[in-house]
Design brief:
Layout lengths: L1 H18 L4 H17 L1 H15 L5 H7 L3 H16 L7 E6 L5 E5 L5 E5 L4 H13 L3 E5 L7
Parallel strand pairs: 3-4
Antiparallel strand pairs: 1-2
């Protein structure tokens, strides 16, 4: 387990260097492809979600089962959310503040990617697509760990 985790972290760190250099158009293209793939995979996703729901019955309260449950509308909303992130302006490289010092030196505060972002969350499949899209748009790589109830 520790070895697998270390391999994931090493791969994420290497990928973060590449992600930080992607242009806005490449990021947007990838996000739109991600949304399309999500919609194309609806039947497979629903089948996997059904397996998760069956495994969670009697274990999770109904409110948690509802959070875990997907349907075509929820998957469509997830894809729409990814497309909305793609439509946002690229935050990377935005100048937030600029000051000229008395000695002539110019100092700027500029948005840059963080690198690798780890997110642990409960069994809410929509968080997976939202978090991945937001991290990617901001030039970051993310390692997502959803709840064990969303295994499939």
């Amino acid at each position: 387990m520790i070895r697998a985790t270390q391999e994931i972290l090493t791969a994420a760190k290497a990928a973060s260097r590449e992600a930080a250099l992607l242009t806005e158009s490449r990021k947007n293209e990838a996000l739109l492809l991600m949304a399309d793939a999500l919609e194309r995979g609806t039947a497979e996703i629903l089948q996997a979600n059904l397996a998760d729901l069956e495994n969670a019955k009697g274990v999770l309260p109904e409110v948690m089962l509802d959070r875990l449950r997907l349907d075509e509308n929820r998957i469509s909303a997830m894809a729409k959310g990814i497309r909305e992130v793609a439509a946002l302006p690229d935050p990377v490289g935005a100048v937030l503040e600029r000051n000229a010092l008395k000695n002539g030196l110019s100092v700027s505060k500029i948005r840059v990617p963080l690198g690798v972002i780890g997110i642990i969350y409960e069994s809410r499949p929509n968080v997976t697509s939202d978090a991945a899209a937001l991290c990617f748009k901001s030039g970051n790589v993310c390692i997502l760990r959803g709840g064990k109830d969303a295994y499939h």
